[in-house]
Structure prediction request, 34 residues.
Amino acid sequence: QPSFESLMEAVKYCSLGQITNVLYEVGGQYRRNM
Prediction:
């Protein structure tokens, strides 16, 4: 389970567009697993 701190670390290294894509992918996987 990723923590908020790890997300902030990712933000440091990735662009906003990349973060958005990752969040959409993770959200889609989460909904499919429900």
